[in-house]
């Protein structure tokens, strides 16, 4: 098991989730149960899956949860781009989040690789 609160990958995922909540608060009210809800759930899923994996007893299980977190990160990226294309938010407001997501995806990939390398 890993101490999730000390993992930089989890810390960044938590920061991204907070930023998503702030950003989506600007979306149209009719999107409350649509894109707003979807993107928030996906953002929370990233940090949640990292945490759940950290609580597992094997690195193999942790690696699987990191894969799920990675998928959720790409889901958030896609949803942000959809929001831009629908003019719900300006591209320049999304760009810093996209950069953070890229950094997170690299961190997840690298961390997952170290876990897999330690397994026979």
Can you tell me about this structure?
The chain is mainly α and 120 residues long. The protein has one domain (4-117): 23S rRNA-intervening sequence (de novo design (two linked rop proteins), Up-down Bundle), CATH 1.20.1440.60. The protein is built from four helices and no strands. Helix 1 (8-24) runs antiparallel to helix 2, helix 1 (8-24) packs antiparallel against helix 4 and helix 3 (59-85) runs antiparallel to helix 4.
Quick summary:
By secondary structure, the chain is mainly α.
SSE blueprint and pairings:
Elements: H1 8-24, H2 35-54, H3 59-85, H4 91-117
Give short descriptive properties of this protein.
single chain, about 120 residues, mainly alpha, de novo design (two linked rop proteins)
Q: Roughly how much helix do the residues carry, as a percent range?
A: over 70%
CATH architecture: Up-down Bundle
Main CATH class: Mainly Alpha
Could you please say which CATH topology applies here? de novo design (two linked rop proteins)
Count, helices: 4
Structural category is mainly alpha
**Mean pLDDT across all amino acids:** 93
Q: What kind of sheet is the major sheet?
A: none
Strand residues, percent: under 5%
Count of domains: 1
So, the CATH homologous superfamily?
23S rRNA-intervening sequence
How far the N terminus sits from the C terminus, by CA atoms, comes to 18 Å
Oligomer: single chain
Shape: elongated
The number of E-state strands comes to 0
Order of helices and strands: HHHH
Question: In terms of per-residue confidence, which ranges show pLDDT below 50 for 5 or more consecutive residues?
Answer: none
Task: Please compute the radius of gyration using only Cα atoms.
Answer: 15 Å
């Amino acid at each position: 098991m890993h101490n999730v609160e000390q993992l930089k990958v989890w810390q960044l995922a938590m920061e991204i989730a907070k930023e998503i909540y702030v950003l989506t608060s600007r979306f149209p009210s009719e999107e409350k149960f649509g894109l707003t809800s979807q993107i928030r759930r996906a953002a929370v899923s990233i940090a949640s899956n990292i945490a759940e994996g950290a609580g597992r007893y094997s690195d193999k299980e942790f690696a699987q949860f990191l894969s799920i977190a990675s998928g959720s990160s790409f889901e958030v990226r896609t949803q942000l781009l959809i929001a831009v294309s629908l003019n719900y938010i300006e591209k320049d407001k999304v760009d810093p989040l996209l950069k953070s997501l890229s950094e997170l995806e690299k961190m997840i990939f690298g961390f997952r690789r170290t876990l897999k390398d330690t397994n026979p």
